[in-house]
Amino acid sequence: MKELSRKYKAFRVEEIEGKFTSSIKEVEINSIESGEILVKVCYSSLNYKDALSASGNKGVTRNYPHTPGIDAVGVIEHSESQDFTVGEEVIVTSYDLGMNTDGGFGEYIKVPSNWAVKLPQKMTMQEAMLIGTAGLTAGMSVLRLVELITPDDGKIVVSGATGGVGSVAVAILSKLGYSVVAITGKESETEYLKGLGASEILLRSEIENFKNRPLLKPLFAGGIDTVGGVILQNIIKSTSALGVVTCCGNVASPKLELTVFPFILKGVSLIGIDSQNYPMKYRKKVWELLAEEWKVSQDTLAYSEVTLEGLEEKIALILDGKIKGRTIVNLKA
């Protein structure tokens, strides 16, 4: 252990007599362990998991006070690792960052070096947080899908299409030549989704009300589901023979109520996506793809930028399902 003193500003969540409050506080780092790096955070981003942590969800964060923020990008200011040197720009996403380890909603993070990825040369810090864990999850989903499904095989459906994961998935798939069906509960966002590259829009109410049968008419060659529940069930039931569906979320429901028929009669594959502990070898590969062949223009994706002081309002909006696209947190401002 090496002594290290840094005082910095952070968005802190505290538990007081069973109630959770948030405010901007001064926090201090006093030491650094072997194998760790200290990163001066330049940007972070807001994810649904951050909002849960900020509202006191003990399934995400066990102990408070705490600094949320599962995404961060910045410059290494101190390194106790042979893999990184002072001055290098790095991305840190997922693992335990922002969950039980103080996260990116603070001006510094101290993390194990094996959580960090060097910022790709063809990606800016702001672009990295426009992508963040949500975009990384989208990239992981696309990577698994394109291994087995080609654009000639048919349409790909994406649920939660105006959200962080869904919007990036729609944009990447369209860029790769796939015909994309975007599912949304927001009919007003039709033009936005078409601007991302969606060829068709399917309203959430429509797919939720598909007939309750073990198998449904084949509509899709594959799918990327971000919400779970009835929508995932009906995507699976509506996927063609030998189709592939990835799943990464459960905001609608963690339950799946369906038979094995789609899997044993049509050979449909369901692939789970775990962005939190995604192996580093593939993590680096996806970040490079997102920086180059799969790069999505900032002008294409909807996003807003806030400082730490603007986070509380955005957290309330994301919990109410009222945020479109991504929210970047600027810690340089």
How does this model look, in words?
The mean pLDDT is 95. The chain has helices at residues 48-54, 125-146, 164-175, 190-196, 204-208, 229-237, 261-264, 280-291, 311-319; strands at residues 2-16, 19-32, 36-46, 71-79, 89-93, 108-112, 116-118, 156-158, 180-184, 200-203, 220-225, 239-247, 269-272, 303-306, 326-330. Strands 3, 4, 5, 6, 7, 14 and 15 form a seven-stranded mixed sheet that branches. Helix 1 packs across helix 9 (311-319), helix 2 (125-146) crosses helix 3 and helix 2 (125-146) packs across helix 8. It is α/β, with parallel strands linked by helices. It contains nine helices and 15 strands. The longest helix has 22 residues, at 125-146. Strand 1 (2-16) and strand 2 (19-32) form a beta hairpin. The radius of gyration is 20 Å and the shape is globular. The chain starts with a strand and ends with a strand. Helix content is 26%, strand content 31%. It has two domains: 2-119 and 302-330, Medium-chain alcohol dehydrogenases, catalytic domain (Quinone Oxidoreductase, Chain A, domain 1), CATH 3.90.180.10; 134-272, NAD(P)-binding Rossmann-like Domain (Rossmann fold).
Determine the N-to-C terminus distance: 32 Å
State mean pLDDT (0 to 100 scale).
95
Q: Quick one: biggest sheet? A: 7 strands, mixed
**Regions with pLDDT < 50 over 5+ consecutive residues?**
none
| Total of DSSP H or I helical runs spanning 4+ residues | 9
State the CATH topology of the largest domain.
Quinone Oxidoreductase, Chain A, domain 1
Helix-strand makeup class? alpha/beta
Level-1 CATH class name of the largest domain: Alpha Beta
